[in-house]
Design a protein that fits this description.
The chain has 587 residues and is mainly α. It is built from 18 helices and five strands. Strands 2-1-3 form a three-stranded antiparallel β-sheet, with no helix packed on it. Strands 4-5 form a two-stranded parallel sheet. A hairpin with a 5-residue loop joins strand 1 and strand 2. Helix 14 packs across helix 16 and helix 15 runs antiparallel to helix 16. It is globular.
């Protein structure tokens, strides 16, 4: 990227005041004193708060909309919610590719926001169409116009596409406003991930409480229309901060990071017959990591030799003559550079951690589906003739996050820092593991509460009354929601920081996308698990997911998830113990 200004030019900032690898909105070296840091982060956080408000304003009550206005079964609705959430979690991979390779993070946020607003507008329109199914809390037989269903799901997945471009860009762009090479800004960046999550949960709380009430008691059209207006205003606020942002400077001569990484794997596969011992001597140990040595084969020329050999020897000749081929970077005849190979290793190193967190993601999907349907069957009265919406209990997840983040940041971190000597108190992987353990405990508690709910239905003879409100307070569900929130302070924020920190600078949108797709894949796995259990248990008329929850067995399902969590945690501890942090990390 070409920078404007020359030495001595009054528009050229002093070198000591510039930030390496960053430019301002005019392409000049970014000044530390006038760009970035919290002044810019606030604009970016605001648009993310609006996005989370919009997303959870839809997701929180989606299962009730599907079973009510669209007349779906509970199992079918839960599967659709999980599929939509899964798509929203996987599409950030596409968004990250487009942002890192073509648009950049700033334009990625702008275009994704416009797509988001279009999807929300169409969703509002679909909710305003008349339907025979009006009651979202009772089991009824009704039909919905096909046009309304098509428009609803089209707009719903348009929102998912908008999220796919939005999520990987906003957080990475926000973290880009802090220079990791500056000691003061490095500390601020670490704190940024905590307060980022703290801030967006305010938007989530309002979505869970205000929007869910509007949707159930006033109008679904209004409940979907308000997020559309909020996203529009947030985009305008984000644009106001354009002059204050720091923009990452990329090397225009290098290809897309996705292409470079893909080429490493292809080149290594082509040279797979070369034994590691036959070329390791040609690689300077100080330039490459010793993990995943098989990828070092991408540094060889196609025939395993440099161009100086004239292509006269093959890999078989090497094995026969015990000749050591020499490794050459791309500019000297090799297929990939050492930097390309190290980038590929950095991404591959993340995979075991990514895979072992899928159990957590499956558990994460339940709070917006079955937890909400349980609440519908319980006593939700808070006095004065007011019943709170079942979906509003999800507000206690972000509320517990808001309350616990300051405790973590101001009390637990300094205490742990004094004991361990680490800047962040505990390592990122230790933080993630703590949350996985708390999540497993929450599923055990959820199973016990559901057993209590089913026992109450039996004691009062309400098993065969699907629309009955049980004489059991909805507040019994509160502890599992709170544990969900506390686990997110550890695992969710830890994963965000981990996947941002452990990838090369040019791949940070990809890092955030990899973190997000954990929950996308987890939602799909949850959908498949529900579908498999539904088919296995529905044949004898005792489905675990019966539309009549008093005859269902969600407690069995929660015990299964507790087991999945325990297995995932065990595998996570095994791989985390041997994980090697990138050299840039201070942990």
């Amino acid at each position: 990227m070409t920078m404007a200004g020359t030495p001595g030019d009054p528009e050229t900032p002093l070198l000591e005041d510039t930030v390496d690898g960053s430019a301002d909105h005019k392409g000049r070296p970014a000044r530390r004193s006038t760009t970035g840091r919290w002044r810019s982060a606030y604009f970016i956080i605001s648009v993310e708060v609006a996005e989370r408000f919009a997303f959870y304003g839809i997701q929180a009550n989606l299962i009730n909309y599907l079973t009510g206005r669209l007349g779906m079964s509970m199992a079918g609705a839960a599967e659709n919610v999980n599929r939509w959430t899964g798509a929203g979690g996987l599409l950030p991979l596409v968004g990250a590719f487009v942002a890192d390779s073509y648009l950049g993070r700033y334009l990625g946020i702008v275009f994704a926001s416009l797509l988001y607003i279009l999807g929300l507008g169409l969703l509002t329109l679909s909710a305003l169409l008349p339907s025979d199914c009006q009651n979202s809390n009772q089991i009824t037989s009704c039909s919905t116009p096909q046009l309304q269903i098509i428009l609803f799901f089209f707009s719903l997945y348009l929102v998912a596409a908008g999220q796919g471009g939005h999520k990987p860009c906003t957080q990475a762009f926000g973290a880009d406003q802090f220079d990791g090479q500056n000691s003061e800004e490095f500390k601020a960046k670490s704190s940024f991930f905590n307060w980022w999550y703290f801030g967006i949960n305010f938007g989530i709380i309002i979505a869970y409480t205000v929007l869910s009430y509007i949707q159930e008691n006033l109008s679904w059209g209004l409940g979907f229309g308000i997020p559309c207006i909020v996203m529009t205003v947030a985009l305008l606020i984000f644009l106001l901060g354009t002059r204050t942002y720091r923009y990452s400077v990329t090397n225009d001569e290098r290809k897309s990071p996705f292409v470079r990484i893909g080429k490493v794997f292809i080149a290594a596969a082509k040279n797979w017959r070369t034994m590691p011992s036959s070329f390791d001597k040609g690689i300077p140990n100080h330039q490459v990591s010793q993990q995943f040595k098989c990828l070092n084969k991408a540094l060889l020329t196609p025939d395993g030799f440099s161009q100086e050999n004239g292509g006269q020897c093959t890999i078989d000749d090497v094995e026969e003559a015990k000749v050591v081929p020499r490794v050459f970077p791309k500019e000297n005849g090799g297929q990939c550079t050492i930097d390309d190979v190290e980038e590929a290793k950095a991404v591959l190193r993340l995979f075991p951690i990514w895979a072992t967190c899928l159990g957590y993601a499956i558990v994460f999907a339940q709070s917006s589906t079955f937890f909400t349907k349980q609440g519908v069957t319980m006593d939700r009265s808070i006095g004065w003739g007011i019943d709170i919406p079942a979906a509003s209990l999800q507000a206690f997840i972000p509320l517990s996050i808001i309350l616990f983040v300051p405790i973590y940041d101001r009390i637990l971190v300094p205490t742990a820092k004094a004991l361990t000597g680490k800047p962040s108190g505990i390592t990122m992987l230790q933080r993630i593991g703590t949350g996985l353990f708390i999540s497993a405990i929450s599923m055990v508690l959820a199973a016990l509460v559901e057993m209590k709910r089913l026992k109450t239905a039996q004691e009062y003879g309400m098993v065969d009354i699907p629309d009955a409100i049980l004489p059991m307070s909805v507040w019994w569900l509160l502890p599992q929601y709170i544990l969900f929130g506390v686990s997110q302070v550890f695992t969710m924020i830890g994963l965000q920081e981990f996947f941002y920190d452990q990838v090369p600078t040019e791949l940070r949108s990809l890092g955030i996308a990899l973190y997000l797709c954990i929950f996308g894949v987890g939602s799909f796995l949850s959908s498949l698990l529900i579908s498999a259990i539904e088919k296995a248990t529905d044949g004898d008329g005792h489905s675990w997911f019966s539309d009549n929850l008093n005859q269902a067995h969600l407690d069995y399902f929660y015990w299964v998830l507790a087991g999945v969590s325990a297995v995932g945690l065990s595998l996570y501890l095994y791989f985390a113990k041997s994980y090697i942090y990138s050299k840039r990390s201070t942990l």
